[in-house]
Each structure stands twice: as structure tokens, then as C-alpha cells.
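Quick question, first post here. What does this chain look like in 3D?
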Amino acid sequence: MHHMVKRPKPKQDENGKYLHNGAAAKGGLNKSILDAGWASFIELVKHKAEWAGVTVYEVDPYKTSQICSACGEEGEHKDLSVRTHVCIHCGVVLDRDHNAANNILDRGLGRSPRETASAGTFRRAIA
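> Answer (accepted):
Ran it through. C-alpha cells below.
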């Protein structure tokens, strides 16, 4: 499928001026193709899970890396190169992906991070 979502090559006229190459339209098509790929993957996972007697919950991952899974406060935006979550509010230090996974789990179970923290369930990073 990756060959279907390659960027169009730039086109130039004889003076070196770039010509319209349909990149914007292709970008929209690429997004649709990739979205369809994810939709197919999710359906496959749901089918396999049903066969195994497991339920799959779809969870919005929005800001799961910025929100602290220990206290529920939102921190500063992090570039993808920043791999450690350090909460400026409660001081917890977790691997960025571990923090996001905790938040996704809480969302899937219908809990807010604050409910988890107030219930005494404090997660620590495993070294």
C-alpha cells in the first residue's frame, strides 16, 4: 500500500519554475487511503478479538501524551523526540508511551486520571 501514498514528484518548466503537480489533491487521497487502511486493521482486530472472546474499545488518543496519568493535569506540548513524561504539577516521571498507555487504558475503562489518582491507584514507572 505504501507505493499508493508516495508524494508526487515536483514538476518544473524550462525556466525552472515549479508547475502544479496535484500534490494537494494527492495529499487528500493519501489521507483517505491511510484512513481506509486503519479502518480495515481495526475491523480485523475486532473480528479476531470477538473470535477470542475479547472486547475491543476504540479510544480517542487526543493529548494522551500531554495529560499526566497520575494527576490528570495537562502539561506542555512535547515533540516526539522527547521520550520521557515529567509532570510539572505532581512530579511523576514516566516513559512517554507508558504515560499515554495509562491514559488510554483509563479512557477505555471510562475513568478519568483524577479518579484513578484519587482512588489511590498511583502508577510508577518500571525501571
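The longest strand covers residues 84-86.
Residues 2-51 form one domain.
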